[in-house]
Design a protein that fits this description.
The protein is built from four helices and twelve strands, in the order αβββαβββββββββαα. It is α+β, with helices and mostly antiparallel strands.
């Protein structure tokens, strides 16, 4: 080690041209997505009877002011306002809420046209694919973080107790306030709605897939709720008597 030449920290070695080109392409891809999708992300200020005022994020998915967000952000709200990137504070109301997928739909009351983000096909995602999260974590508005799709097809327990299927796992940094904001592909399409993080973990965050969000969005627009079929069968634990165990040939 002592025979090796000492690195001159004052003049670090230049980045190889090939690597520099890759970094430039990565930066341009992220910047392009942020410039296109960033104006569609709003900060939601929420007040309810059961909790103090809070904030979250949402993404405009229709020019007439439909905003997709999380159920746990606006589910029990008595008052909602949406703050746009250009600083406008708009009164909004909850159109529909689906705790089973942690998704909700909010409509801005003002008669204006807002920039909207397209919903992509989450089935086309691949592990390792670049994704960008945009939101308002901890009150820091219009924050951008990047990462990759860490895993697909995860399941996540909703507050209602049901499992949310087809959840996207990502290492794009999320914090309280990112909830309801979009997870965006490098093509500028919303592929997920950021919903949860594991406290104490590093880079383990989750988003509800855009295909799930698209289905829920349609149901909430048409019916104000998500209608789900059921077959009327429930299960519970039951202690069998000794006679029944013997009749069924069960050892325990």
């Amino acid at each position: 080690m002592l025979d090796r030449p000492t690195t001159n920290l004052a003049s670090p070695s230049p980045v190889p041209p090939d690597d520099e080109a890759l970094l430039d392409a990565y930066s341009r891809a992220v910047i392009d997505v942020v410039e296109r999708v960033g104006p569609t992300v709003v900060r939601l200020d929420v007040a309810s009877e059961r909790r103090r005022e809070g904030t979250g994020s949402g993404v405009v998915v229709a020019p007439d002011g439909l905003v997709l967000t999380n159920s746990h952000v606006v589910g029990d709200a008595t008052r909602v306002s949406a703050m746009t990137v250009d600083g406008r504070s708009l009164t909004a109301r909850v159109v529909g809420d689906d705790p089973d997928t942690d998704l909700a739909l909010v409509r801005v009351d003002a008669p204006l046209t807002l920039p909207a983000a397209p919903l992509g096909n989450s089935k086309l995602l691949k592990r390792g694919q670049l994704v960008i999260a945009i939101g308002n974590p901890l009150g820091f508005e219009s924050t951008v973080t990047t990462g990759v799709v860490s895993a697909l097809g995860r399941s996540l327990r909703a507050r209602s107790g049901r499992l949310i299927d087809d959840v996207i796992q990502t290492d794009a940094a999320l914090n309280p306030g990112n909830s309801g904001g979009p997870l965006v592909s490098s093509h500028g399409e919303v592929v997920g709605i950021n919903t949860a993080l594991i406290v104490g973990a590093q880079g383990i965050c989750f988003a509800v897939a855009s295909n799930t969000a698209s289905f829920v969005l349609g149901e909430l627009v048409r019916h104000g709720r998500v209608r789900r079929a059921y077959i009327g069968i429930a299960a519970q634990q039951f202690a069998l008597s000794r006679r029944r165990r013997h009749a069924a040939g069960l050892a325990q």
